[in-house]
Write a structure and sequence with these properties.
By secondary structure, this protein is an all-alpha fold. Helix content is 68%, strand content 0%. Helix 2 packs across helix 3 and helix 2 (24-39) packs antiparallel against helix 4.
Length: 84
C-alpha cells in the first residue's frame, strides 16, 4: 500500500500543475475519487437542491459508495495520468 499511497500523493501534486483545466465532469470524478480514497464512503448529509455545486459533489461521491480506498486511489491515478 505504501507504493500506492506514494503514487496517489504524486498524482495529487500533478493534478495541480495541469496545463489545461479539466471539464466539470472530470473535476467531479477527481473530487469523488479523492474523497473516497481519503475518507471512504460519503456519510455527510445531502446538501440542499439550491446549492448546485455542493449537491453535484455530494452526488458524485455518493455514486461510488462501497469502492475500496485502494481502488479509488488507482482510479484517481489513472484519471490524472490520462489528463497529462
Amino acid at each position: 500500500m505504501d507504493a500506492l499511497s506514494d503514487a496517489f500523493t504524486r498524482a495529487q501534486q500533478r493534478v495541480k500543475t495541469l496545463t489545461r483545466r479539466p471539464d466539470n465532469a472530470v473535476l467531479l470524478q477527481l473530487y469523488a475519487l479523492y474523497k473516497q480514497a481519503t475518507l471512504g464512503d460519503n456519510a455527510s448529509p445531502k446538501p440542499s437542491l439550491t446549492d448546485l455545486v455542493a449537491r453535484a459533489k455530494w452526488d458524485a461521491w455518493s455514486k461510488i459508495k462501497g469502492l475500496s480506498r485502494e481502488e479509488a486511489m488507482q482510479r484517481y491515478i489513472a484519471l490524472v495520468d490520462g489528463l497529462e
